[in-house]
Specification:
single chain, 246 residues, alpha/beta, Rossmann fold, 7-stranded mixed sheet, 7 strands, globular, transmembrane helix
Length: 246
């Protein structure tokens, strides 16, 4: 399919979403999205995504205890915690610092904390992923980031911050939806949906080839797998997951 086809279908989708475009033009959509719609949507999506991606997450976090510090503690920083869907996979006694650029997830986050009392909650920081200046350098054993790199302002800046806050030998765990193969129909529909999806879902980008950023970052070791998470009728089925060692 050609570029004109993509532009035509984008225009059709924009017409369907015209009320949201109008609210955005008036400056109403973004604050409503951040405070009400996106926290509500993400908590509902997390329930579905957790069910579909449970196998990948169990595999992903299986070796997390291997990165405990010499003292036996496991200090973990989660970037873009949202409503806390990863807490169930963390080992008992793990000390977790939560961060998110959006402070409006507190209700869902509190529910997750109450359900997962096997871990210790250190603090919650309102912080952008590419600016974690509140976290000292070399102070954590592991950093976790799931379904976040699709919407950060600067992926490479985020990975530099991850490397800075990790202690030597610490690990960065990730699970992200990414661009489909460029020759596939999935990629075509990702291109069609891109502008409207990004507006509606708080900056989420459908066509990022995040594995390339991870491969180019200054990690000493990278374990990365491509997979599909069964989310029919959505453009976010292609995923990557794995961990990288500082």
């Amino acid at each position: 399919m050609t570029e004109p086809s993509i532009l035509f279908l984008r225009a059709c989708l924009a017409l369907l979403a015209m009320p949201i475009y109008l609210l955005s033009f008036l400056g109403i959509w973004e604050p409503f999205c951040k405070k009400v719609f996106f926290p509500f949507f993400l908590e509902k999506l997390s329930v579905v995504h957790e069910r579909k991606a449970k196998k990948q997450k169990q595999e992903l976090f299986r070796n997390l205890p291997d990165f405990k510090s010499p003292s036996g503690d496991l200090k973990l920083l989660e970037i873009g915690t949202g409503c806390g869907p990863n807490f169930q996979f963390y080992p008992p006694g793990c000390r977790v610092t939560c961060t998110d650029i959006n402070p409006n997830f507190q209700q869902g986050l509190s529910r997750s904390m109450n359900k997962n009392q096997h871990i210790q909650y250190e603090r919650f920081l309102v912080a952008a992923a590419d600016d974690l200046h509140q976290v000292p350098s070399g102070s954590v054993d592991a950093v976790v980031c799931t379904l976040v790199l699709c919407s950060v302002r600067d992926i490479n800046g985020t990975l530099r911050e991850v490397l800075r806050v990790l202690r030597p030998g610490g690990a960065f765990y990730f699970l992200e939806h990414v661009a489909a193969d460029r020759s596939s129909w999935r990629y075509f529909w990702q291109q069609v949906c891109y502008p409207t999806w990004k507006l509606v879902f708080d900056g989420c980008c459908l066509t990022r080839e995040t594995w390339k950023n991870l491969e180019q970052a200054n990690f000493s070791e990278l374990s990365l797998q491509h997979t599909n998470v069964a989310l029919p009728w959505t453009p976010i089925e292609p995923h990557i997951f794995g961990y990288a060692v500082k």
